[in-house]
Write a structure and sequence with these properties.
This protein is mostly helical. The chain contains five helices and no strands. About 0% of the residues are buried.
């Protein structure tokens, strides 16, 4: 069995992306301050992070549910696979002869 190397390129990119995301998150939270509670309520960044955005829910949320439900019958049904039945073949005495020797 082949083992994945610890220094595989996709692992390096995943670790780098995680580290950069963490640094951005920590630096944003360290620099983002409000003077009053009113400023805290009016801040669009804080509203998005705490899911307090005003207005109706976007219509894009039900789309994955509709797509999943359209495939649900296929996921729940057991696929019928036609298996080939074993057939015993006649014995052979080597590879077939070239056509030029038969004619």
């Amino acid at each position: 069995m082949r083992r994945a190397r610890a220094g595989a390129p996709w692992r390096i990119w995943a670790a780098l992306l995680t580290a950069i995301s963490f640094v951005v998150l920590v630096s944003t939270s360290a620099m983002h301050h409000h003077a009053t509670a009113v400023d805290d309520q009016d801040c669009p960044v804080c509203s998005v992070v705490t899911h307090k955005a005003a207005g109706p829910l976007p219509l894009a949320l039900p789309t994955p549910v509709v797509v999943f439900l359209s495939y649900a019958p296929f996921l729940l049904s057991k696929p019928g696979v036609a298996h080939a039945s074993p057939v015993s073949l006649p014995p052979s005495c080597g590879p077939p002869a070239p056509i030029s020797t038969i004619c």
